[in-house]
Design goal:
This protein is mostly helical. The chain has one domain. Helix content is 73%, strand content 0%. It contains five helices and no strands. It has helices at 2-39, 47-68, 76-79, 84-120, 134-162. The two termini are 20 Å apart.
């Protein structure tokens, strides 16, 4: 169980790293477009769509990484006052009853969304460039699939903690602060 949790943590770390690289690419492309538009009066046809898709990819690919680092948003008003064992049970129930089923349902819907657009060669229709949308929809599916895996890892992590065998990655692992 420990090796499975750490493998999923590493996958989430990798998708988070990819999201960080995509932010850099997004900034470079937006600067290029701004310079082309204002300095050379040569706007690009592709900048709007690429910026939209890259920002969406950055967001969705970073969600599993954020969960693996325990950096997601929660209501700390109540959470901070509860004992660790109660928090572990609350997390376990929340992940198992709400988060995992919802993310799995969304991921399965995103697979259909991607597959249908791939088969139909659907295009965005949002700009003159009019790119195919299936690559972005594939990224959405991958992001949610990795998030589902990370939620499963968090469920296993909470179970292990309740059994007295916590699976907290080393600081050197790079996947969770101590």
């Amino acid at each position: 169980m420990r090796s499975l949790i750490r493998a999923i943590d590493r996958l989430s770390f990798a998708t988070g790293g990819l999201a960080a690289l995509l932010v850099i690419l997004l900034v470079v492309l937006m600067v290029y477009d701004a310079v082309a538009r204002y300095a050379f009066s040569a706007p690009t046809l592709w900048a709007f769509d690429v910026a939209t898709y890259l920002m969406g990819a950055c967001f969705i690919l970073s969600t599993a990484y954020t969960l693996s680092r325990d950096a997601h948003v929660r209501v700390d008003l109540v959470y901070a006052w509860l004992p660790r064992r109660v928090l572990t049970v609350v997390d376990l129930v929340g992940f198992a009853v709400i988060v995992l089923p919802v993310t799995a349902w969304i991921a399965s819907g995103l697979w259909s969304y991607f597959y249908d657009s791939f088969l139909s060669a659907e295009r965005s229709g949002s700009s003159a460039w009019n790119p195919r949308v299936w690559p972005f929809r594939l990224v959405l599916f991958v992001g949610f699939a990795v998030l589902c895996l990370q939620v499963a890892a968090e469920i296993l992590r909470r179970i292990a903690r309740l059994l007295g065998r916590p699976v907290e990655p080393d600081q050197a692992d790079g996947t969770r602060p101590t």
